[in-house]
Amino acid sequence: MENKSPNNAHDSKKRKRVDGAQNPRSQVQSQSPLAVKKQKLLQSRQNLPIWSRQRDIRNRLREHDILVLSGETGSGKSTQLPQFLLAESWCTGKIAVTQPRRVAAISLARRVAEEMGSPLGSSSPASKVGYSVRFDDNTSPGTKIKYLTEGMLLQEMLRDGTLSQYSCVVVDEVHERSVDVDLLLGFLKQLLESGKRRKPLKIVVMSATADVESLSEFFSTPMTKPEVSGDTSNGTVHGDDEEFNGFSDSEQPTPVEKKQVSTCRVEGRQYPVKLHYLDNPTEDVVDAALQRILHLHCKEPMPGDILVFMTGQEIIQGLQKLVEELAGNLPSEYPRLLVLPLFAALPQAAQQRIFERAPPNTRKVILSTNIAETSVTVPGVRYVVDTGKAKIKQYRNRLGLESLLVKPISKSSADQRKGRAGREAAGQCFRLYTQQSYGELEKDTKPEILRCDLSNAVLKMKARGVEDVLSFPFLTPPNREAMEKALLQLLLLGTLNEDGKINDIGRKVARLPLTPTLGRIVLEAARPERDCLLEVIDIIACLSVENIFQPTDTEEAREKALEARSQLHRRQGDHLTLLAAVQAYASETSDRKRWATDHLISHRAMQNVMNVRKQLIAQCKPLSPNPTIRSTTDEATQENILKCFLKGYHSNNIARLCPDKTYKTFAGNQTVAIHPSSVLFGRKVEAVIYNEFVFTTKAYARGVSAIQLKWLEDVWGSS
DNA sequence: TGTGATCAG
């Protein structure tokens, strides 16, 4: 039965006829539900734009190792391309397909399993399709097609430097240009040019935009100085290495010739969207959006929901009030208007409301951040209103901190937003800016690697044996200053040696699912002198998820929160307060959700904390097989916990109280105030450490704990 | 006395 499956047929000549078999009735009667479902799906697969390109794509990959495929949403590339390749003679191993987001990896795997008539993941050893995302590895030994997040493949590359179990890596959604995708592309390019693979490795790079030239140029041009060196002796957290790790041989790399890269374009499927611009620029986009929403609602026929792109939570909630007010005053002959906000911090249940059908005679208006641009598909939308702005992360080398700024979006972002109106029928897009302003927008959004703190990326490169990170093959190289800042940071953390080589600590930190700073703190906690691993992991878990404390926007809510959380507050500061919260939650055995609600703590955030905690404890097992559980009321324990943080923050995140009663940072002697959300707010202690420095109405330190200056020598004096 | 686009390990 296995061999009858068209996608497993190893006889590619017969394949076309089997796929096209139009008389499945006799098979259907005798086949399992999975096979019936597969047969039903075949027709819709055959209608996808990419279907007719199957032969072409397979031929191209027989002749070339690299294929750059551009295709818009709806072309079917993410589901069909991996299936096309399964029967190729070079495809003896697995096919990896990377995705930027977990939900995408999971839903694609589910869909492809159905199409292939295969059980999903670990449910059966016969499963051909699986997925792997953080906290959820759903694969079986027989998995041939594996959907996984970019971060998961990066982790796999640290453990198995040549990706020996794969015959093909498909990198999807490259146009989003996450830091992880940029690293992956560089690592894959190095791997291809290293000549380290025993069997061929095929690479398919897929992008929704037509930036095919830069991608094919990237892969076809050999690196001037192939980077092959590095000390990769074992220093693992897992201790399960079998394969070599990176490019550790001292032998010279094989000389590289210019690679042949094949390129291919597939049409998407999209209904037409009519564009409208403002004649004159507006000063007040909120008002312009309000007018546009009401006008659309009163003039355009039903059905047809409206999706409005805005910058952030606050402005969305403001507009929501205005629209609801005005819509309430409309004459009764108009349909009703249901306003739904959408942003990531919104509780899950509230986010779900956008998928529910509106009551009869009601039009939905969804006011969204750019979450609706890529991460969430809102159904029923025929009208898009675009303010042309978004909050964008920026990194400032000199201050060494990331901040969010409202900035104009790029052309490709604007076009993506517009496309959201044409998913189900023809639609319209109203841009709340002029056509001239559109013309002046950047073509693409600046890749994240040019806008962020690079210490994590650089550490990963070092852990893969890349010694000269300045000549790493980046699709768009970050500037030298940002790279040097990251190297310095890693050196201060003690993850690199003076000569820039990664050390044992660095290799261990690189494998933890944390920033280098937080990873370093965890390692410190495992040292026998500190011996407070479990306690520090609880705190670190909180710092690596969203805020566990429910936001308090009114005076009343603030008082209520203060009251509800009073038993959790620790006078030493926010770190020990977080620890108290996790310990209380974890020891709650009856109803954790209720406990969270009672304490005005986000249950969803706490569930994430528990997942991260479990993962970190498992990963740290080799560091400290039997960690002691400490009494957290013991002063020595408290001191040890905070000293671990001191080790990770070194001079960056410390401030001391000056005679003028203000806190000044160690590093820059800058005045910094304790944030009102801190339990230490308003208190004066000799010195503090803090998790982050933010500049809003003034310079604030958030996540603050009291320390003693005499501790510094103990922490900095030792290695 | 005040904040937060989004995603990933």
CATH class categorisation of the largest domain: Alpha Beta
How confident overall, as mean pLDDT?
87
Ends distance: 62 Å
Structural class designation: alpha/beta
Which residues sit in consecutive blocks of at least 5 with pLDDT less than 50? 1-28, 226-253
**Strand order in the largest sheet:** 4-3-5-2-6-7-1-8
Strand element count: 21
Question: What would the CATH topology of the largest domain be?
Answer: Rossmann fold
Proportion of residues in β-strands: 15-25%
Largest sheet: 8 strands, mixed
According to CATH, the homologous superfamily of the largest domain is P-loop containing nucleotide triphosphate hydrolases
Q: What is the global morphology?
A: globular
Written account of the structure:
It is an enzyme of class 3 (hydrolase). Residues 289-465 form the Helicase C-terminal domain. Residues 1-41 are annotated as: Disordered. It holds the Pfam family OB_NTP_bind. The chain has 719 residues and is of the alpha/beta class. The chain has three domains: 26-266, P-loop containing nucleotide triphosphate hydrolases (Rossmann fold, 3-Layer(aba) Sandwich), CATH 3.40.50; 273-446, P-loop containing nucleotide triphosphate hydrolases (Rossmann fold, 3-Layer(aba) Sandwich), CATH 3.40.50; 516-717, no CATH class. 39% of the residues lie in helices and 18% in strands. It contains 26 helices and 21 strands. The protein has an eight-stranded mixed sheet, with helices on both faces. Helix 12 (348-352) links the parallel strand 11 (336-342) and strand 12. Helix 16 packs across helix 18 (504-511) and helix 20 (533-543) packs across helix 22 (574-587). The N and C termini lie far apart (62 Å). It binds one DNA strand of 9 nucleotides through residues 100-102, 133-134, 149-152, 154-155, 176, 178-180, 311-314, 343-345, 369-371, 373-375, 390-393, 404, 406, 448, 456, 511-514, 544, 546-547, 551-552, 558, 612, 615, 673, 675-677, 681-682, 694, 696-697, 700, 702.
